[in-house]
Amino acid sequence: MRALVDTIDPALPDDPRPEWVWYTSYGSNTDRDRLAFYIRGGRPPGSARAYPGCRDRRMPARSVPVELAGALYFATESPVWGGGRAFYDPRADGRVLARAHLVSAGQFSDIAAQEMYREPGASLDLTGVLTHGRAVLGRGRYETLVCAGRMDGLPVLTFTAPWGMDDVRWNPPSAAYVRFLAGGLLSAGAWDAETVASYVAACPGAAGHWSEQAVTDLLRTGP
């Protein structure tokens, strides 16, 4: 069973300087409790990294389930989680289950900065990504901004690597990472456990290492 997800209009937004954006997470920040450390700051349980948080520490006004055109894959090695990180390839075929969080443009800038291992506090220039749908800010793993369209007139924004899915060696994610990613998708309320588990287990990097049953077992144990 799958409930209706919010529909993304693929047209780029009209406003080049929006006050609010939909930060769209496809990795561990699908889980709102995990996202809270990027917003309010602090060290997540079991993590070696403390996050400074955003200048504006309000949690998202809304969080809604969405599907992005493209593919999710796992690659590189996360020093926080161990194992591969989730990346989004908007040019690949398929669909990506995700969760869009309604945050201020400043909060999006600060969340992105922390993912890029930069200090938060400076607002990103979103003109390029809102005009062209993509903006490469650096060569790092989350330094490419992507605009998937708009919802309620506001931009649907995320970040990923500058390379494509087939340009890098895939790497299976750790159990802790899978638990947060899958748990966040499940708690979004649009997909049941079977749908989430089969989706994660089929993603490149996870496929052949994570079975649908293994992902289901993690969902049962919770974060």
Write up what this structure looks like.
This protein has 223 residues and is of the alpha+beta class. A 6-stranded mixed sheet has the order 2-5-1-8-7-6. The protein has a two-stranded antiparallel ribbon with strand order 3-4. It is built from 6 helices and 8 strands; from the N terminus they run βαββββααβββααα. The longest helix has 13 residues, at 175-187. Helix content is 26%, strand content 23%. It comes from Streptomyces thermogriseus. This is Histone deacetylase.
Count of strand segments: 8
Number of helices: 6
The assigned structural class equals: alpha+beta
Query: Could you spell the SSE succession in H and E letters?
Result: EHEEEEHHEEEHHH
Distance between the termini: 23 Å
In what order do the strands lie side by side in the largest sheet? 2-5-1-8-7-6
Percentage of helical residues?
Answer: 25-40%
Strand content: 15-25%
By oligomeric state, this entry counts as single chain
Overall 3D form = globular
Largest sheet: 6 strands, mixed
Stretches with pLDDT under 50, minimum 5 residues: none
Using the CA coordinates, give the radius of gyration.
16 Å
What is the residue-averaged pLDDT? Answer: 94
